[in-house]
Amino acid sequence: xxxxxxxxxxxxxxxxxxxxxxxxxxxxxxxxxxxxxxxxxxxxxxxxxxxxxxxxxxxxxxxxxxxxxxxxxxxxxxxxxxxxxxxxxxxxxxxxxxxxxxxxxxxxxxxxxxxxxxxxxxxxxxxxxxxxxxxxxxxxxxxxxxxxxxxxxxxxxxxxxxxxxxxxxxxxxxxxxxxxxxxxxxxxxxxxxxxxxxxxxxxxxxxxxxxxxxxxxxxxxxxxxxxxxxxxxxxxxxxxxxxxxxxxxxxxxxxxxxxxxxxxxxxxxxxxxxxxxxxxxxxxxxxxxxxxxxxxxxxxxxxxxxxxxxxxxxxxxxxxxxxxxxxxxxxxxxxxxxxxxxxxxxxxxxxxxxxxxxxxxxxxxxxxxxxxxxxxxxxxxxxxxxxxxxxxxxxxxxxxxxxxxxxxxxxxxxxxxxxxxxxxxxxxxxxxxxxxxxxxxxxxxxxxxxxxxxxxxxxxx
Length: 461
What we know:
The protein is 84% helix and 0% strand. It is built from 16 helices and no strands. The protein is an all-alpha fold. α4 (65-91) packs antiparallel against α5 (95-131), α4 packs across α10 and α5 (95-131) packs across α10.
């Protein structure tokens, strides 16, 4: 699906064998997410290996995660709510409405990015102290945060509008969007950090420039001749009748990302209290390792989303169900394999970021605890992505809130009251909440998905 006419894309989404189609769509999106992962970790790799100050720099950048998560959260609120709605409209044969959805989302992304940039510049330093900064780490966290937040517009364009490329089935194009920016980042990071002696400022600047290149690329594609849905000047004015259901659907990924920020603050503030900068550094490593599997798994979900959304709009329950079960199987294999590797070889993953002996001693066992039930998480990811794809906003929101807001954040503060090793108790909160939320997700799925498919079958009769 490389810029082919709409009829060809629609025909494949409607009739091609689901397994082969998912592979065709998912491979580019997984590759794109793996490359996108480099945006998130290449800075930490270079900074973590800086002579003398590597651990402090790594920890300082880790303390900026809430800012990164919040920018991503608002991107997902608008774009991940809009892309499935656009795909469903395409499945219903209404490309005009799909284009108006995309244009409204574009304008909302621009305005939101400008507002976020102003807020982070005004209140950024105070926020970093709340996030758990110390006198040593604020020297690295503050400049990184200010430069990164200045590029919010580029980040939101690259991440958000690329979802509208993916949802049309142009997954190879979306992969190129991410690949171009990631290659730029890999090249610019050592130049700015080491050759130009800019340290964390160089890392942030490299990321912003790379996201700008990606953002320009994706906007150019969406205004060109090859795309099915086109960004047109006359459709950039937000249509609030269309945006209301978009935001209703986008609230679930927004909650997932924004609570990730709150979660990161909760983890870091507790770990700073019980274990100091070493414990916070171990958390930076653990959360980054988790991203190494979570981000590619999202690529699988994004590959399945056009199939599920299009066929849900076309009232083809059989293909929706087939796509879900295929997604579930592949996700569980991916998560299970990664879980085994982390449990057996934690030092290999930790050395990617830093070789400090004190960090290694703490990070080995904390990483194993943190990822203890990761192998089961493919279930929740598949359920969450499917609910998003068929527009079940309430069910998706429930799952998102359950794991982080209802379970994980309270457990971070409750469990240390029952264990002598307080750092262990904080990290234990992750697997406990994961196990409960995966179980609840599976139960919710049967109460929501089956009736939805039965309703489609009834409409078909």
